[in-house]
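Explain this fold:

***
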Amino acid sequence: MGMSVGGGSGEEGAVSPEMNTTPLIDVMLVLLVMLIITIPVQTHAVKLDMPMGNPPKQENPVEPEVVTIQVDFDGTVLWNGRALSGRAELEQEIRTAAAKNPQPEVHLWSNKLVKYKSVATVLTSAQRLGLTKISLIGGEQFLD
């Protein structure tokens, strides 16, 4: 039951020109809830190929060669202590290392002050050119 309050035209049975918005609000709320439920959750993921289980023991294991790549604070890349002139030389060294059998272990060390772009460039080049044994070392410098 509703009651009309306020001045009217004086007729008791007159239809009110105002629209009942309650059903419209209910429909809008249902649509909003459905929209929220159906939107997929946005996740940022980095694909990593992690080793599965323990590898079988080899009788005469050959110690792999260790290659140290250092990325200095200014973005300079050093391959086993030797400064590289640019990305082309880095990629040539990576191709050479990836072609060896067994593949060398790559230890990537980055300076605390280097921009992430420089380290990401080395990692993407190594992955794209086929290096599979990459270790990030020197994480203790970021503890403080």
Q: What stands out?
A: Residues 66-139 form a domain with the Nucleotidyltransferase; domain 5 fold (CATH 3.30.420.270).
